[in-house]
Automatic annotation (TrEMBL):
InterPro entries: DUF4438_C, DUF4438_N, TM_1086_sf, TM_1086_SG_dom
Top-rank taxon, per record: Bacteria
Protein name listed in UniProt: DUF4438 domain-containing protein
Domain DUF4438: residue ranges: 36-174, 176-298
UniProt-listed Pfam families: DUF4438, DUF4438_C
Taxon lineage: Bacteria, Pseudomonadati, Pseudomonadota, Betaproteobacteria, Rhodocyclales
Length: 333
C-alpha cells in the first residue's frame, strides 16, 4: 500500500497555473582552459564535471565520494538557440526558469524519441536543467538530442499556508511527496538537516528560481554530525536558518527545503547542490526525517541506495597517498 499517496496534501491553486512547453538540447560537457581543478586541499585533479549524459549515476545514487566534480546525474539540458529580441540567451533563461522539479520531459529527436523522463533539478552557473531517464534510454541518448518539458509550477501556492513560498516545484511533486498538515504546520519528509552556515557557492544571487546553492562538506565534524556523507542525488533536505524567497539568505528562524541536484566538489566553497522548493518560517514549516524522501522513491522511478556514510574525495585521496608513502621500498634485484 502506498502510504505516501494517502498522506493529506495541502490545497494548491492548481486551477490558476499555466502549462507551457519549453525545450533544450542534451548539453555537451564543457572544459575549462586548464584541465585541472585545484581542490581545497591544494591538490590539482582532472575529473569529469558538468554536462553530457552521465550513464552510471541517477537519482537515488550516492553523490559524495565520486571521482567527479559537480556531477549532474542523468542528462543535462541547455537551450543553445539565440533570440533576436531581448537577451541572446533568452531561450535558455526561459528553460531554466520555467522548468520545475517533477515536470515530465519527452525526447523529441534522435533514436530515443518518445521516451519520457523526470526533471530532477536546476544547476546554476552552468545553467542546466537536469532530467532523469531509465538507464537503457541514457545509453542510446545522443548529445544534441532535443527534449521538451511541459513546464507546470510557476505561480504555485499553498492555499492555506500563505507564509510558505513554493519555488521550482511541480504540483505533481507536492501531491506525491507526503506532506502532512497538522496543527497549522506543514510537515515535510526530508532525509537530512543542513545548517545554513555551511552553504556556499550560489550565495549572492537575487533569485532562487534559476539554479541551486552548494553544501560545503570539507569540515569533517559538521559532516559527521549531520550525516552529510550519506547524501544521494534526489534527496530532499532541509536547510535550517535559510530563507530563499529573494535568493539564498541566512535568516534565523526560517527554513528552506530543497532537492540535491548535483554531486560533491573538491573546490573551496562548493559541494552537493540544492535547488530550493519550499521556504518559510520554521514555526510553520517542519522537516520530518524519512529515509525514503528521495525523488527516485517519491515517483517510483527506482529504489534509492541505502544511505551510507562515505568519505569525500579529498580525504580518500589523502589516505591513499599516505599508504603509498608508508609502503616499504622494493629491492631492485
Amino acid at each position: 500500500m502506498n502510504t505516501r499517496a494517502q498522506a493529506s496534501t495541502p490545497r494548491l491553486n492548481a486551477d490558476e497555473l499555466v502549462a507551457v512547453s519549453v525545450q533544450g538540447q542534451v548539453a555537451h560537457p564543457v572544459a575549462r582552459a586548464s584541465a585541472y581543478r585545484v581542490g581545497h586541499d591544494g591538490v590539482p585533479r582532472v575529473l569529469p564535471g558538468t554536462g553530457g549524459i552521465v550513464l552510471n549515476q541517477r537519482i537515488g545514487d550516492p553523490c559524495v565520494g565520486l571521482a567527479g566534480d559537480h556531477i549532474e546525474p542523468g542528462a543535462a539540458l541547455h537551450n543553445n538557440n539565440r533570440e533576436v529580441v531581448g537577451p541572446r540567451d533568452g531561450p535558455n533563461n526561459a528553460l531554466i526558469t520555467y522548468a520545475c522539479v517533477g515536470n515530465l520531459a519527452r525526447i523529441v529527436s534522435g533514436p530515443c524519441s518518445g521516451k519520457v523522463g523526470l526533471v530532477t533539478g536546476k544547476h546554476g552557473g552552468i545553467n542546466h536543467v537536469l532530467v532523469d531517464f531509465p538507464t537503457e534510454v541514457l545509453l542510446r541518448l545522443q548529445i544534441g538530442d532535443r527534449v521538451q518539458i511541459v513546464s507546470h509550477g510557476q505561480g504555485l501556492r499553498l492555499a492555506d499556508h500563505p507564509r510558505i513560498e513554493v519555488l521550482n516545484c511541480a504540483p505533481r511533486l507536492l501531491r506525491r511527496w507526503g506532506l502532512v498538515e497538522r496543527d497549522g504546520r506543514l510537515q515535510v519528509p526530508v532525509t537530512h538537516l543542513v545548517p545554513a552556515r555551511i552553504m556556499g557557492s550560489g550565495l549572492g544571487k537575487n533569485t532562487a528560481w534559476r539554479g541551486d546553492y552548494d553544501i560545503q562538506l570539507a569540515d569533517r565534524a559538521t559532516r559527521a554530525r549531520y550525516r552529510l556523507g550519506s547524501l544521494r542525488f534526489g534527496d530532499m533536505v532541509a536547510i535550517t536558518d535559510a530563507d530563499t524567497r529573494r535568493g539564498p539568505l541566512y535568516a534565523s528562524g526560517r527554513v528552506t527545503i530543497g532537492v540535491i541536484v548535483h554531486g560533491d566538489s573538491t573546490v573551496s566553497g562548493h559541494g552537493p547542490g540544492v535547488t530550493p522548493l519550499l521556504t518559510g518560517p520554521a514555526a510553520l514549516l517542519r522537516p520530518v526525517h524519512d529515509a525514503r524522501a528521495n525523488l527516485a522513491e517519491i515517483f517510483g522511478v527506482r529504489r534509492a541506495a541505502v544511505p551510507r556514510e562515505r568519505s569525500i574525495l579529498a580525504e580518500s585521496d589523502r589516505r591513499q597517498r599516505c599508504v603509498v608513502r608508508e609502503a616499504p621500498p622494493r629491492l631492485a634485484f
